[in-house]
Specification:
Number of strands: 0
Order of helices and strands: HHHHHHHHHHH
Oligomer: single chain
CATH class: Mainly Alpha
Strand content: under 5%
Number of helices: 11
Largest sheet: none
CATH topology: Heme Oxygenase, Chain A
Distance between the termini: 71 Å
Shape: globular
Helix content: over 70%
Length: 233
């Protein structure tokens, strides 16, 4: 039963957003500078909300040992006074793609569909049982392979990007497998009943849909700025 459960979780990789048409074009070197800038701007909103998601998991988890482990994710993203974390690395990625950190932090370019999807994910972590929220994080099982392709594609196809700005991806190649292994162990250990296992798979499916919905909005490039109608004469 354990092997079947793990297989069900891993099968959600067929829904991962590296298969989205937008990411396919990115990996093929077919995106314009504007499209990459729209992507890095909107994805930053997701990046800055990841520690909020992890803090929500911790706030719902009564187990000291799990909290001691899980807090490392927040430190990795927020950084410390002496060392920047994932959020700082993403700001540098934005600068390498020609988007200032002031623009990223202002959230002016965040599309409504992206904001809605990311907020839904944070609220899921706040409202659902903590082990289901942990299960939703298991998209990290699929991340390293996709990141490796993305990093190579950016270095090959987008030579105008400063390579120093790609450090975020290099770091995740190391940290994502570590995080995924620990989370998978927790989910397998705690989800013993079939009902719990189905809930964990559903949580991971939900997370893949959150990531896909973000790319749908980024791909369309819908504007959140509405032009008021011209008054009738």
């Amino acid at each position: 039963m354990t092997d079947e459960f793990i297989a069900e979780l891993r099968a959600q990789g067929t829904r991962y957003h590296n298969l989205h048409p937008f990411h396919r074009r990115m990996d093929d070197g077919a995106l314009t500078r504007e499209e990459l800038q729209r992507w890095v701007t909107n994805r930053f909103y997701y990046q800055k909300c990841i520690p909020l998601k992890d803090a929500a998991i911790m706030s719902n988890c009564p187990e000291v040992e799990v909290r001691r482990k899980w807090i490392q994710r927040i430190i990795d993203h927020d950084g410390t006074g002496a060392q920047g974390g994932g959020i700082e690395s993403w700001l540098r990625l934005g600068e390498a793609l020609g988007v200032s950190r002031q623009e990223l932090e202002s959230e002016r370019g965040v599309l409504p569909g992206v904001r809605y999807a990311v907020d839904a994910y944070v609220n899921f972590a706040r409202q659902r049982p903590w082990i289901e929220a942990v299960a939703s994080s298991l998209t990290e099982l699929f991340g390293p392979a996709a990141i490796k392709v993305r990093l190579e594609a950016m270095e090959r196809h987008y030579d105008w990007i400063d390579p120093a700005g790609l450090e975020y991806f290099r770091t995740r190649l190391v940290k994502a497998p570590r995080d995924a292994d620990y989370a998978l162990g927790l989910v397998v250990q705690r989800c013993r009943s079939r009902e719990q296992q189905l809930a964990a798979v559903a949580a991971l499916k939900f997370k893949t849909e959150v990531l896909w919905a973000q790319l749908d909005a980024i791909d369309r490039g819908d504007s959140q700025i509405c032009t008021p109608p011209t008054p009738a004469p």
